[in-house]
Amino acid sequence: MAEFNPFTLHGQEDSEQRKEMERKARERSALVLAVFGTDAGQKLLEEWTETYLMRLPVVEPGITEFDAGIRQGCVNFVRFIHKNIETAKEFKE
Question: What pTM was estimated for this model as a whole?
Fold first, then answer.
């Protein structure tokens, strides 16, 4: 009987699970590039980058923890988009 491994998915081998995760990551990155690779998508991403990444600090006096969490979530989302665009371009090369 095979030893139980909590890091496998439905009995898949670790390498199979890793390949599937990599495939999904590539697919997601390609989709992000397809959306934000257009003129409209680039313009929107530039706006979000300026609004969320360039507005520092995330936490300012007088805002609630909830508001700070929302702001950080927006920052993380814009970073996620940038990272996926970089990843998609690397796969294209």
Answer: 0.75
